[in-house]
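Mods, move this if it's the wrong board.
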Amino acid sequence: MPRPLYVAVVGGGNAPPAERELAKAVGQGLAEAGAVLVCGGLGGAMEAACEGAREGGGLTVGILPGTKRSDANAHVDIALPTGIGEARNALVVRAADAVIAVGGEFGTLSEIALALATGVAVVGLGTWELARAGKQTSAVMRASTPEEAVTLAIGLAGEHRSGTP
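Not the wrong board. Structure tokens:
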């Protein structure tokens, strides 16, 4: 039996309701695709994505900034406390075969940058627009719906896993 793909969902800890709905739909779609959802394990978009994944029968992993498993949101199946604060963002993206960024603030931006710097593809849903100076193409693959984000991320995760550029 092949190992499941791991897809990180990153977004704001204080996400507004519209972003939470997008994240929940992304989580459910990832579960239905058989992917393991990885996130920072706290509230906002992370919690909504975990809720959607659990409703879809999926597995959720929360990589926590603090030292207590009890800090994880109620929808995290596997809580991994790190005690390293925001530096855990690097662990979230390193654990993933692809990343879906839903909205977000500067913490999300750091996760996007870390993913891109380490060769992990990022799909954006209402998130940061990033392009290098002089380039017209965004470094983040854009999606307009949660379904499109999941489809793109699953395809990119499979390529990452197989080592295909």
